[in-house]
Amino acid sequence: QVHLRESGGGLVQAGGSLRLSCAASATIVGIYPMAWYRQTPGKQREVVAIITSSGTATYSDSVKGRFTISRDNAKNTVYLQVNNLKPEDTAVYYCKWADYWGQGTQVTVSS
Length: 111
Description:
This protein is mainly beta. The chain contains no helices and eleven strands.
């Protein structure tokens, strides 16, 4: 059983930044791909960023250039730096590994 715990969400004004963290309970970071997703009410969960075991990062078009995914293997933690936030970025952000999901962290961006 693997547990993922997100943190770092909050309420920010448009243009602001946050750093989201996802701490894993097992040694998986740096070994397997990890992903960040987000979901708003009434919509499907969408992938935001993925980092492979080799460190290659890919992003959805809507966040490219503003979000950065990274990891600290020693801490078993994956990060999502979110900059230049827009109201449409408001969502619950989840990290995912294999079939495991965290509980999510809320990001709310005010205009």
